[in-house]
Amino acid sequence: MSGETAKPDSFPDAQLPALFIADIHLTAERPRTAEAFFAFLAGPARAAGSLFILGDLFDYWVGDDDDLPFNREVCDALRAASAETAIHFIPGNRDLLAGEGFARRAGVELLPDPATLQFGERTLVLSHGDAFCTDDHAYQAYRRQVRDPAWQAGFLAQPLATRRKIVAGVRAQSEAAKQEKRSEIMDVNPEAVANLLRTHGYPTIIHGHTHRPARHAYLLDGHRCERHVLA
Predict the structure, then answer these.
(1) For residue 227, how far is the Cα from the chain centroid?
(2) What are 90-121's pLDDT values in tens digits?
(3) At what angle do helices 149-156 and 160-180 cross, to 10 degrees?
(4) Pairing of β 115-119 and β 9-10
(5) What is the rounded CA–CA span in Å between residue 160 and residue 5?
(6) How many CB atoms lie within 10 A of CB 170?
(7) Which residues share a beta bridge with 124?
(8) Is 160 exposed, middle or buried (0-12, 13-18, 19+ CB in 10 A)?
């Protein structure tokens, strides 16, 4: 892994029960998904102490000034739920540009990637998960580019309509590229996962991104660890 192995910030005051979700990919073009998410926020989410959204809540996010009615509806629903449940958000690769403006509108707390939680003696490391896919060299190069503050500033300086067109083009290119890539390079790299486990004292990892939901058990250096991949 690259600099992502630096020790993440810790948030020991997360309240139980805690729910973890990722990769909802909300867009007005998928109304049934949106309806299910709104129902989740109005029901099960409010029975939890904490809700952690681990990236790609939106299918795309071109900046906090994006005033689409659908975006406002999602932010309003999050803010309403946050009155009863603490909501935490790690931006993913699709909504990387969700910043403080989004957080204020939605009533959520932004977390770094990765971030740690301490529940008693159990340590959790939370991440979107794309940093672990180190075998996909083309994607990692793209990831470094779009996370560069200078690149982000230049992109956000462009008109909103221009940004929407750029993102639409990138989404189309991404889908086309996936068809040409071997399936295994789009999954996590075992060494990258092992490095993270060692660096952070053999925690439990929870992440999304790969769309391969599973529970993985490890025996690493004599320590039992788990990695949970969200649906």
Answers:
(1) 15
(2) 999 999 999 999 999 999 999 999 999 988 78
(3) 130
(4) parallel
(5) 34
(6) 14
(7) 117, 204
(8) middle
